[in-house]
Amino acid sequence: MTTKELVQNVLATQYNNIPDEVLTHAKKSIQNWMGVAIGAAYHPSVDMVLGLKKDLQSGEQVSVLGRPEKVDLLLGSLTNGMTSHIFDFDDTHLDTIHHPSGPVAPVVFALGEHYDIDPKELLRAFVLGCEVELRISNAVYPSHYDLGWHITSSVGVFGAAVAAGVLLDFDEEQMLHALGLAGTQSSGLREMFGTMTKPFHPGKAAQNGLLAALLAKKGFTSSKQVLEAKRGFASVLAPEHNLERVNENWGAQWELLKNAFKPYACGIVLHPSIDACIKLREHAQPEEVKEIQVTVNPYVLELTGKVKPKTGLEGKFSIYHTATVSFLEGDAGEDQYQDDVVLRPDVVEFRSKIKPTVDPNMEEDKVKAKIVLNNGKEFSVTIDHATGSIENPMTQEHLDSKFEKLTNSIIGNENTSKVIQNMKNFETLPSIKKVIELCTGNNVLV
Containing H/E element for 381? Predict the structure, then answer.
């Protein structure tokens, strides 16, 4: 009954049922997604994926953010989902370490552009897609994640399918089949972290969810109880789960409001340590430092324990590198995760001074850090809530600045400013195409 009840809840939720604060947060989430996607548009892995366009004889249906190419619906969803995760700079549902926009927004934009759908309906679809994936994540986390599944991908496929089903005006039967088709395509392994395949995951979730919906629209059948069945998603992929969380307080509790935005271009588990090291740099020059001790939540070393990263991607999964650049440069943006920075002699040397230890009782967004100087002096700092957390959120001004830094060099300053303004009034726009044209890299000013 869990899957059926979820579908009924989704289909009963119209635009006017969604609170204004949720719609506002949705617009922030979409803007953040667009920024990180545009910023990574020319990463080598994107060239590889778009290189398939000719091989697959892909049609020209939808846009790739940050680039002039057009591709078919499925390749567009894959690409725009992948680019949004390449920098590890996307949004995060802190309760489950899930990045909700990556699997859902590419589908919303692809169908919105192709069928020129009313932006109000696009917002509704985005909210409902995110709500579904985050509620399913709540039901299976942490058991599912601890097994090694990349939850953004493995659960995000459900959100993508629901968003597509909403926009394609599905009835209950079609949406049930779409969720079944999505669940059987659930995948994404944490083994891939630190490689090009990690950002590939949310792209595949978007693509697979859209494919599930397109097939369901044709009458393709599937199980109608994908979540709760004995051999369904939860039983197979999460030894411990609580499916009651999927539908509890529907319409009164909005998981999307727990979606946080990153000020730093790496996994959210590293953000408290970054804040701490930036504060500690006030007390000493690099040559004066003997060591920096950081006491962290267990997930930090599990996810980011690479002692000797060799590439920028690996650096994002190294507390040693991340703490180093945070102290040396006062930031952990995409510039700090370039290959040449990871291999820079002063950075490599300083990494040996980072001494992380695990405290199993430490909250995930908290850290205690201490700098020990060569002369014996010590300075300590505690970060209770990292910058970007729900308790210490990025403001709209911070999000606008982040968007500008990521996009100015790709789509131009004027286009960037227009996108920001359009996103604030997204639901009143006559068409999504106005925003997409500004984001394609063609510098089309509308």
Answer: strand 378-383
